[in-house]
Amino acid sequence: MAHPIINEDECIGCGICVDACPQDVLAVEGSVAVVENEDSCIGCGECLEECPMGAITEIAED
Ligand code: SF4
Ligand code: SF4
Fold first, then answer.
1. Mind listing the pLDDT tens digit for each residue in 3-55?
2. CATH class name, domain 2-61
3. pTM beyond 0.90
4. Sign of the alpha-carbon torsion through 43, 47, 48, 49
5. Cα 62 to averaged position of ligand 2 atoms, centre (Å)
6. Alpha carbon distances (Å) from 2 to 31, 39, 44, 47, 57
7. CB of 25 shorter than 6 A to ligand 2
């Protein structure tokens, strides 16, 4: 199952990744992005490409 890895130290909670995700996998809680619906992730990489901070470091497969 694919899922994004988020570096909480770099994330500014802007929500761009939330909007970029076609599967509603991500949410911003407090001031940091979190993986809310991991089972829905299709590994497309849109969140990683759109993050302005490079806070999504990889799309992991496991
Ligand atoms: S890889 Fe694609 S489906 Fe998965 S969280 Fe990122 S934007 Fe959403
Ligand atoms: S786009 Fe990047 S900086 Fe913005 S909320 Fe998502 S992970 Fe955090």
1. 999 999 999 999 999 999 999 999 999 999 999 999 999 999 999 999 999 99
2. alpha beta
3. yes
4. positive
5. 22
6. 23, 8, 9, 12, 13
7. no
Please list every protein residue whose CB sits less than 6 Å from any atom of ligand 1. 2, 4, 20-21, 23, 25-26, 41-47, 59
Q: Which of 32, 57, 27 is nearest to 45 (CA)?
A: 57
Closest ligand 1 atom to residue 2 Cα is: 4
Say which amino acid occupies 6: I
Nearest CA owner, ligand 2 atom 2 = 51
